[in-house]
Amino acid sequence: xxxxxxxxxxxxFVFRGTVQQLNASTLPEVADKSKTAIVRxxxxxxxxQVLSHYTGQNITVQLxxxxxxxxxxxxxxxxxxxxxxxxxxxxxxxxxxxxxxMAMHPEGSDPVTNLEDRDARAHFDxxxxxxxxxxxxxxxxxxxxxDRAPREHDADWREATIxxxxxxxxxxxxxxxxxxxxxxxxxxxxxxxxxxxxxKGQFVLHxxxxxxxxxxxxxxxxxxxxxxxxxxxxxxxxxxxxx
Amino acid sequence: xxxxxxxxIIPRSLSGETHQDSEPxxxxxxxxxxxxxxxxxxxxxxxxxxxxVYVSNDGGNTWTLQAIVPSDQxxxxxxxxxxxxxxxxxxILRTPFTAQDAQGNPIPTLNILRTGNVLSGAEMQVLVTRTxxxxxxxxxxxxxxxxxxxxxCGNNDFNNNPQSAxxxxxxxxxxxxxxxxxxxxxxxxxxxxxxxxxxxxxSDGTVYGAFLSRIxxxxxxxxxxxxxxxxxxxxxxxxxxxxxxxxxxxxxxxxIVAANRLIPFLNEPYLGQERIxxxxxxxxxxxxxxxxxxxxxxxxxxxxxxxxxxLAMSADRGATWSADLLTITNATNPAVAINSNGMVAFVxxxxxxxxxxxxxxxxxxxxxxxxxSTDNGATWTDQTLATVPAxxxxxxxxxxxxFLPYLGDYLHLMAVDVNFYGIFSxxxxxxxxxxxxxxxxxRNCDTTKKVLFDVDGTTPVDVSIDPFFFKVAP
Lengths: 243, 474
Hints:
The structure holds two protein chains of two kinds. By secondary structure, chain A is α+β, with helices and mostly antiparallel strands. Chain A has four helices and eleven strands; from the N terminus they run αβββββααββββββα.
């Protein structure tokens, strides 16, 4: 039997559902129905925003394992198909509802928040350093400009100095940290926060690859959460400190 | 009278999305033109998993989004094309970029992908993976060749700097384990090629390639290029590849169509909110015996701060070229196609209203034009497919939700038999006046109030950039 914890780590959309019809689909675009079923979403447990409003509705599930009509199960799935008549998801596996699956998230918790918190935990674990602080200055980085013609995905690095107010992972004793971030608005980089002096919040920092560098990098949209707009990382760090 | 069909391809279940679905591409299955696949910079709406493509099985009237491309959430570039046997091929830059250069800049990885059944929902198979010093902007073309397919994927291969214009290709792409080769197509010792390297295939074995070869300049605003066209007459199966066309100036492979053109690379909102720097397209007359007729279009700066498209044509296999058949000021994203009657169609997107570099106002609009000629480009019809506000959504937008390229570094136009099929990206305000040839929205909206709505049908949704499919039956 699949381990629900392992499945929940790989699946973005987790729900308790009841199988309505085998070898069927809510979407006319699903041509091969040999491994699909129509399943009613009875309770959404963990979900991205785009799938969070299907509780009480039928969706199409491409099954990883056989099910029977009327069967209730907790399905661990990822998005597959978005159509005019609804959505279809791919199942990584399913298990019977149990105290273990009920305990995955508190009753009444927000499924979108549950997924955000899972991803924030993984993000925290993968980071070299997580700190709270304030950007004191930002400069261009001439030494990081490539000695060649410009390319569309070039980062156009900037370097921010961050005054550390609290270290949550690594950075113990650090008063200032140098952080490089891409100023480019190319599609590779556009979501990465463009820091400016005075920005205050939590920074999730990474070590660049290659030889030891005297700076960290900020390369994902989630790498900076402003204090004025706290999100999953603030929740995670707050919960860690409560413990 | 021609009939026009224009469809916003965002499915109803994604009515709440506000992504920047720019840089679109389109594949129409020549064996079954009801089956189509479209792509754009559309992320997986769930925020994880494979990158998606749009799929239609009813001739483009309705579309779904399917996550079948093996790339994390979205690609960094994608073009798609059907072969002759129902195989769909894709050239992508796979994300995340896992390699970096010494300055921490990402090194892009090229994948060439295939699926034999786009409706199966199965993830596309990886046929080619190349990284090294990096490979950028794959633009794929495919065609039937007997029982198999030929595939040519133009790309900017940093492994061969400065002669980076390159083709990855296979003469047997439908094979279970297709052999792929790679060849440099720029033989001159220049200073580096621009990102756009475009192939065009004729069923008689002729393959053209077009690229922009940099000859001088180091500052972003002063780069000068030759517009070059190469040709191979045997699907690149001979001993010397893409060497059939030489230039009279030096006898080397590659005909210089236009020399010493100023093409600034300005990776910032410059033309309206769009960047400029590498705009190129090429296509060949698909009719039997007509592979010598080829069209090329590019953009350069002819005045102080414009960005101007030029369309030229050759009737002798690229040996000599016409003067501009069309010259379009402050425009980008040209694409050309020829149908089975020899009608030429030309699409582009033009910024109208008073032009100021790096500025945009409410008076500026992006107009998408569809033009046709039945006399080899001497005279042209002109149908506006879209005329939309150029100032919305803003770039950069709040929380970095807008990026470059704004509309895309390319769009696509193709012909199957007599019909033309294409795709462009534009501001999605549901105002019928913005789409003079008509439009259909799948996503929830009120075209009277000109408002988009979320999946609940009541919550307003912000304007964003969406892909629009179009079909023209002449």
